[in-house]
Amino acid sequence: MTPTLLPDVPVNEEGYLIEPDHWSEEVARRLAAQESIRLTDRHWAVIRFMRAWYAEHGVAPSPRDIGVFLKRNNWPRSEITALFPYGYVQQACKIAGMKRPRSWSTG
Predict the structure, then answer these.
(1) Which residue, 38, 69, 72, 77, shows the most beta carbons closer than 10 Å to its own?
(2) pLDDT, average across residues 74-88
(3) pLDDT score at 33
(4) At the topology level of CATH, where does 4-95 sit?
(5) What H or E segment, with its residue span, contains residue 6?
(6) Is the pTM of this model over 0.85?
(7) CB neighbours of residue 56 within 10 Å
């Protein structure tokens, strides 16, 4: 049996959405709560960037792409760790509704 986050929103055993198109802001709030993160405007800015990237490219943005986003917003590189202390892949990708990237470190 596949675990679910909300009715009809299945996640895998690690808590990542099985289908990124099932993502919504409510799903993000629930995922963040499971990670003990209270989403702020900066979290939402990163998440919305990631969702827009996914919509355009069909994959999660790489850590390098996130670095470009941070630089464009004049945020330090350490901001991603401040926002998602357990790492870009483990928390940011999960909360933004991305499938867990296979080739990246776990953050």
Answers:
(1) 69
(2) 94
(3) 94
(4) Arc Repressor Mutant, subunit A (1.10.10)
(5) strand 4-6
(6) yes
(7) 9
